[in-house]
Amino acid sequence: MPSWLTTFGDLMALLLTFFVLLLSFSTTSQNDFEKAIGSLQGALGVLDGEPIMTPPV
């Protein structure tokens, strides 16, 4: 295994951690959350029905 692959793996783990921290410190309003879920349902072709996820409080 090439030595650069270890460094690349560490970089990917740190980037993932950074974006998870950004998401955890952000605030989302109820309206924005519902718009985002609706957009994902439209883009991914999910059928209309009961919402699977409950919005964050």
UniProtKB/TrEMBL annotation:
<dbReference type="InterPro" id="IPR025713">
    <property type="entry name" value="MotB-like_N_dom"/>
</dbReference>
<protein>
    <recommendedName>
        <fullName>Motility protein B-like N-terminal domain-containing protein</fullName>
    </recommendedName>
</protein>
<keyword id="KW-0472">Membrane</keyword>
<feature type="domain" description="Motility protein B-like N-terminal">
    <location>
        <begin position="3"/>
        <end position="44"/>
    </location>
</feature>
<dbReference type="Pfam" id="PF13677">
    <property type="entry name" value="MotB_plug"/>
</dbReference>
<dbReference type="GO" id="GO:0016020">
    <property type="term" value="C:membrane"/>
</dbReference>
